[in-house]
Design a protein that fits this description.
The complex is a heterodimer. By secondary structure, chain A is mostly beta strands. Chain A has no helices and eleven strands. In chain A, a hairpin with a 5-residue loop joins strand 7 and strand 8. Chain A starts with a strand and ends with a strand. By secondary structure, chain B is mostly beta strands. The mean pLDDT of chain B is 93. Classes of the chains: A mainly beta, B mainly beta.
Chain lengths: 115, 113
């Protein structure tokens, strides 16, 4: 099936530092989504992107839909301890793909923030 | 507004036992999904139901069956549990269409011994 390559797999940072993670694919996507999963909970949607080049912010989070439509990145500024969790990218293939409608998820980035 | 509710939250099974994981959503969504989450593997789709009355295999369907009981409920059944099915299982729902993400339940942590 389709694969999204998410990196890095894990990050260990100090409180206050900025964080950057990204997802790439060999296929073109028409939607990119970023989710956060807190320990013991299900993923929760953070940001949704619908157009190539789109840059969207949600508080300290900023995400961009890559111009090629094959990648996306998420930045977290001035990290705090509650940012700890697993961050997933997800994409929906462009119309005409056999997986149209369903999301494909990256492997996740585990974020640890040291106070 | 409960969103997506999964039961049970935790379960321990012996190899060969069967069980059904329950999922219900109250958002009137047409599409529902079952995923499993394993360390380093992300979320892998087991089965999905695009609308009431339809179900389709996902990426890792072997060893599982599903039932879309009605628009609200989508259950996942393990007929003969195996240790390889030890995982965290998530149910999700959405409205079909290109602009919408999924809403996830809080998961069922299953251990098969």
């Amino acid at each position: 099936g389709q694969q999204l390559n998410q990196s890095p797999q894990s990050m260990f940072i100090q409180e206050g530092e900025d964080v950057s993670m990204n997802c790439t694919s060999s296929s073109i996507f028409n939607t990119w989504l970023w989710y956060k999963q807190d320990p013991g909970e299900g993923p929760v949607l953070l940001i949704a992107l619908y157009k190539a080049g789109e840059l969207t912010s949600n508080g300290r989070l900023t995400a961009q839909f890559g111009i090629t439509r094959k990648d996306s990145f998420l930045n977290i500024s001035a990290s705090i301890p509650s940012d700890v969790g697993i961050y997933f990218c997800a994409g929906r293939l462009a119309l005409g793909g056999t997986s149209y409608g369903k999301l494909t998820f990256g492997q996740g980035t585990i974020l640890t923030v040291h106070p | 507004n409960a969103g997506v509710t999964q039961t049970p939250k935790f379960q321990v099974l012996k190899t060969g036992q069967s069980m059904t994981l329950q999922c219900a959503q109250d958002m009137n969504h047409n599409s529902m999904y079952w995923y499993r989450q394993d360390p380093g593997m992300g979320l892998r789709l087991i089965y999905y139901s695009a609308s009431e009355g339809t179900t389709d295999k996902g990426e890792v369907p072997n060893g599982y069956n599903v039932s879309r009981l009605n628009k609200r409920e989508f259950s996942l059944r393990l007929e003969s549990a195996a240790p390889s099915q030890t995982s965290v299982y998530f149910c999700a729902s959405s409205e079909p269409g290109q602009g919408v993400g999924y809403t996830f339940g809080s998961g069922t942590r299953l251990t098969v011994v």
